[in-house]
Amino acid sequence: MATVQRFGSEHGLPGHLVEFVAALRRHGVAVGPGETIDAAHVLGALDLTRREQVREGLAAAVLRRSGHRQVFDALFDLFFPAALGAGGSEVEVPRVGDSPDGPVDVDSLREILADLLRDGDTAALAELARAAVDALGGSGPGGAGGRPSWSAYQALRTLSPETLLARIVADLRTEAPGDDGPFADEMLRREIRDRIAGFRKMITDDVRRRTAEVRGREHVARTAVPRQTEQVEFLSAHAEQLAQLRRIVHPLARRLASRLAVRRRHAKRGPLDMRRTLRRSMPTGGVPMRPAHQRRRPGRPELVVLCDVSGSVAGFSHFTLLLMQALREQFSKVRVFAFVERTDEVTDLFAPGAELGGVMQRVLREADLVAFDGHSDYGGAFGSFAEHWGDAVTAKTSLLVLGDARTNYRDTNLTVLRRLVGQARHAHWLNPEPRAQWGSGDSAALRYADVLPMHECRTAAQLADVVEGLLPI
Asked: Distance between CA atoms of 429 and 470, rounded to whole angstroms?
């Protein structure tokens, strides 16, 4: 209740909601005026002391896609915290010698944690998390003005909840001896692991909340709130984020296909047919009351993809190729060529129905891509492609080059690339590096951009926007 009163006295609840919505927008969650009004109605209808009801009500009002929920929850915890400061807790942290100011009795605290994890008491675990951060996570005064700082790592290292797994499982087996067998044992272990992961998150969330109170919500929102999957930069993504990116390929392709269908419906008519328009105007005295348009003859072009699969851009190339594979019905024919130092065709690895889980490993293992040291050689790659597969690019072809254009100071071979672009119907280059870095160091991006349009594609969201603009109507 104190939290709600604080919002009402300092900011006013409407203003606080507007700040919350603005933070969602900064993190890529599309919240329009209509959703904001719905959220205001939710806050007016719900009991603000029931925090989880407020969370679910606001989520239902402002979210339109499931992929935004993680960002929403992190920002909700900042703007509608569960407590202020140390908060209130019925869990007492045991101290050595029963002195209120004595050192924490870590062994006794771990006993309490093990009991709560075994019982699955979520509310009590949340209270314990707040008490543990208060007792173990403080790092003393730090930063400007001697403000206190907090460390989730410090609290979790001291408690080491993962090491309690075997003990909790043994206790539960003793309580329910009839549930034997490998399957039941594995299910029990997974359940306890999930509870431990939930407790770790409680610790992390409480540290984030306390830090926001000291340093401001805006600072924590910029540095600690996770990005949406579609906003993660390809070149800085770790393995788990790349796996999440791969999972959004097909939903992203479906959205692009539906938007393309709308564009096609709005573009059924071709240019004005002057002869038919004049003929139709004869009954109206030459006034063109019923303009006639030429019939569109949309043709699906062929697509040729040239992609750098060297280590620096492999994640970007993999995701883009998976997206193109999901959109292949938009093209009459798709051919894929991978390169590092030289080029080889890998179309068969991306055929419909092919297993795409480890496709990049197969590309690197089976294709002939390395000539000398395994570093990217764009000039050599363009040359070998033109020599062996130059006839793949025709007046019906859309040519797509994927890569960061970092040549390792080798020949750019602009002459061959210019010839290939001249043969193609369309040609575009997708670059995962920030535009500000084009031309720096060994980057030949600006030189290549003089030959064909180059587009910055650092994230899946940027890539989707670019690909939507490039797809045929």
From this structure: 11
293-295 vs 269-272, strand pairing mode: antiparallel
Of 23, 74, 82, the closest CA to residue 51 belongs to 82
Question: Cα(250)–Cα(136) distance, rounded to whole angstroms?
Answer: 44
Tell me the C-alpha distance between 52 and 234, whole Å. Answer: 34
Q: Could you read off the pLDDT tens digit of each residue along the chain, which spans 473 residues?
A: 444 444 444 457 888 899 899 988 888 888 999 999 999 999 999 888 888 899 999 999 999 876 788 888 888 988 888 777 766 666 778 888 767 777 888 888 899 999 999 988 888 898 888 888 888 877 655 544 556 788 888 889 989 999 999 888 888 888 766 666 677 778 888 999 999 999 998 898 888 888 888 888 877 877 777 777 778 888 887 777 778 888 888 888 887 777 766 766 666 666 788 888 888 888 888 888 888 877 765 556 789 999 999 887 888 888 888 888 888 877 888 999 999 999 999 999 888 777 777 788 888 888 999 888 888 999 999 999 999 999 999 998 999 999 999 999 999 999 999 999 999 988 999 999 999 999 999 999 999 999 999 999 999 888 888 888 777 65
Distance between CA 46 and CA 60 in Å, rounded? 13
* pTM of the entire predicted model: 0.67
Question: How many other CB atoms are there within 10 angstroms of residue 92's CB atom?
Answer: 12
CA separation for the pair 414, 450 (Å, rounded): 10
**Closest by Cα among 220, 202, 203 to 211:** 220
Nearest to 70 by CA among 233, 225, 250: 225
Q: What kind and span of H or E run contains 419?
A: helix 414-423
Distance CA(31)–CA(35), nearest Å, equals 6
C-alpha 5/C-alpha 154 separation (Å) is 32
Domain 249-267+299-470 falls in which CATH fold?
Answer: Rossmann fold (3.40.50)
Q: Strand, coil or helix: what is 85?
A: coil
Residues in the chain: 473
**Secondary structure class of 168 (helix, strand, coil):** helix
Closest CA to 131 of 93, 104, 179: 93
Domain residue extents for the chain: 2-79, 96-221, 249-267+299-470
DSSP 127-163: HHHHHHHHHHSEEEE-SGGG-EEE-HHHHHHHH-GGG
DSSP run (H or E) holding 270: strand 269-272
What is the sign of the dihedral through the CA atoms of 167, 170, 171 and 172?
Answer: positive
